[in-house]
Specification:
Rossmann fold; about 40% helix; alpha/beta; nine-stranded mixed sheet; two-stranded antiparallel ribbon; disordered N terminus; 14 helices; Arc Repressor Mutant, subunit A
Length: about 375
């Protein structure tokens, strides 16, 4: 593969390659996981772009929109106009911990200081938007204490706990992760806070195209970045159905630490966090508690259980796929998430061949990926 490096699976792309990367990730039905599979199969974004129409056809799609050179050049120009720039996986500025999560963003839009996202010691503080006064006070105290111990604070720039954590960490370094385009501020009340983050040595990042207004389903995608950047997350006030619990789930999947500040059993905002403590999360109340649990903040983060990057046989080396076998794989899929290895056992077709069919279905927009590498068929009527 032309873009392989020992550390992340990629070397830094040239400017022309970076434009091709942006074209590929901005094309229809190409998310981060699909991007990396295409790169492993075809060796370059240029080759993958050429194959997208054929892959979509094989997967039963009716065509696929491919981002044009003009589209990505306009995005880059608009990003530069607001003082931003693109960071690619494989470049020195790309966050080291983030590079090794499942499906890391190939490109990040960034405003602020590049060095801010390279800090080895990052911790996320997340929690309720409708946080109590006590919850906000605790968030600020923990953020300040961790900042003084040389930690950068990561959060989602939301109201409540997020805003309190960012505000308290302005002098020591904080990173805001956007759920939409980096030029779309949400909530708009945090305009001054965002300006302070960017101007005082922090950064704002997003993997989403410019101009994209965040939808409800975009926030879990953002939350996986919040935990992925960090060595651990600190949860303060999270209801039973809180989005912050998604961040905690991603943290567990990514082998990050999960810390929870307990709350009153009478407060619905504490129900989710208190439950996490019962399930094994570490109870904390101060920055000192967090530092003590981390070994004074100097232990190295545990590696992920699975490396996302690895060798994979190129599609062209597999020979032509038999339509009968392709049909058997599709028939084995349904709305219930299934593991490719289970499909291999059921059909007798090698897993590497099944992965090719899955890639075709992904480009055609017919499958959805789930945690643990499982997939489901979006529309079984095809």
């Amino acid at each position: 593969m032309t873009n392989v490096s020992d550390q992340t699976g990629y070397r830094a792309p040239t400017p022309a390659e970076k434009r091709d990367w942006l074209r590929l990730i901005r094309s229809d039905n190409v998310g981060p996981s699909t991007f990396h599979r295409l790169m492993r199969h075809y060796g370059s974004a240029e080759a993958a772009l050429e194959m997208l129409p054929e892959l979509s056809r094989r997967g039963g799609g009716k065509g696929v929109r491919i981002a044009s050179t003009a589209d990505v050049d306009e995005e880059i120009e608009r990003l530069e106009a607001i003082g931003g720039y693109l960071i690619a996986i494989g470049e020195n500025a790309y966050p080291a911990h983030l590079a090794h999560i499942d499906g890391p963003p190939p490109l990040l839009s960034l405003r602020g200081t590049r060095d801010a996202i390279k800090h080895e010691n990052m911790l996320a503080i997340v929690g309720a938007r409708n946080a109590s006064l006590t919850g906000r006070k605790i968030a600020g105290e923990i953020a300040r204490g961790l900042g003084e111990a040389d930690f950068t604070i990561v959060s989602g720039l939301a109201r409540g706990i997020d805003g309190a954590a960012h505000q308290a960490a302005l002098k020591t370094g904080t990173i805001a992760v956007f759920a939409g385009g980096i030029d779309v501020l949400y909530p708009p009340q945090h305009e001054a806070l965002l300006a302070d983050i960017v101007n005082l040595g922090g950064a704002a990042i997003s993997e989403i195209p410019l101009g994209w207004r965040p939808r409800a389903r975009d926030f879990p995608r953002r939350n996986r970045l919040i935990s992925g950047l960090s060595r651990g997350i600190i949860l303060i006030e999270a209801a039973r159905a809180s989005g912050s619990l998604h961040t905690a789930r991603f943290a567990v999947e990514q082998n990050r630490e999960v810390f929870v500040v307990p709350g009153s059993p009478l407060d619905p905002r504490s129900e989710g966090g208190n439950r996490l403590i019962r399930e094994g999360a570490t109870l904390v109340g101060t920055a000192e508690d967090v530092l003590e649990s981390l070994g004074n903040g100097r232990n190295i983060i545990r590696p992920a259980q699975q490396s996302f990057f690895g060798e994979e046989t190129p599609v062209d080396d597999l020979g032509p796929l038999d339509d009968t076998d392709r049909g058997r794989v599709i028939s084995a899929l349904g709305p219930t998430p299934a593991d490719p290895d289970e499909i291999a056992q059921f059909t007798g077709i090698p897993t590497r061949m099944i992965n090719v069919v899955i890639l075709e279905l992904e480009v055609a927009g017919r499958v959805e990926r789930h945690s643990g590498g499982k997939i489901s068929l979006i529309d079984a009527r095809h």
